[in-house]
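One-letter codes give the sequence; each number marks local geometry. A record appears below:


***
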Amino acid sequence: MSTILRSHAEQMFAQELEELKKADTGKRPPNWQLTPQSVVDYLMGKTLQNGFQVSAKYIGNRRLIEIAVATLTTDRALLLYGLPGTAKSWVSEHLAAAISGTSTLIIQGTAGTSEEAIRYGWNYAKLLAEGPSEKALVETPIIRGMKNGKIVRIEELTRIGADVQDSLITILSEKLLPIPELNTEIQAIQGFNIIATANNRDKGVNELSSALKRRFNTVVLPVPDNIDEEINIVQQRVASYEKTMQLPVEKPALEEIKRIVTIFRELRNGITLDGKTKIKSPSGTLSTAEAISVVNNGLAMAGYFGDGTLKATDLAAGIIGAVIKDPVQDKIVWQEYIETIIKTRDNWKDIYRACRDMV
């Protein structure tokens, strides 16, 4: 039997959600699977009274998650905003899983997302045969969320065209979706809400109109405050990846993860961790998510093309691919960094040689 490549949050953490539900004695908002306090505990982690350990899904400021959850108990929608790779989609998925029991009501925003993907579409064969009818109507995730009182996720809201974005205004303000072709409307039941994500580094994004912005409460998810926090995030996500992919490789050494995170943080911030040397930053974001991808790629290299132990040579290609987005300017920044910073560090000779040889 084949293993699912990536399970939904409610499948991966079904036992945790069930244990939280058993221990949850507080008052739940209508159609919520857990109380707001337990939703926060699910994301931030907690040891329950029976000794069961709920793992942390988000490592950061607890207050931000409390604000996000509190927003979803009101009639305001939630916008998770920030740099790419700051766990916006991850948090969105886990919030939906904990609140509604499903994270699958999702609309992926792109430049080609149409109004039909948000409001409703038509089965044109039935439409031509029978004319407009409920049977010919193609329900979107938003319609299903409205009918069942569930959380709907919209990924990369600012990638969607401004005119299509504004089709959300009536849904968010009136909590209904008019269907003029059928002379009817769909009214949302309690529990329905929308979590949207957007990042502030995409080129060519479509700004939200002021009317739409007013319908959202915005929570900005920052990059990790310190290196230890970021290392912890990378460790957890890499461990989850290893378990799913079943790679023939040893567990990555903490030192290798620390070096990747150090490189990314220094290039991202334009200064070394000790604050003594200013350096140029490349054009990319070098997010925590990209650090996770570099380690995962290195594990695959070590497992299938190495001896099963993660080494600098396994990581070099991933690091360079993450750093050098502009083949001219970023390459200059990277070469300067490896010669002035990496080369001078004790115990970094292996990663210096691996990166130098690949540039």
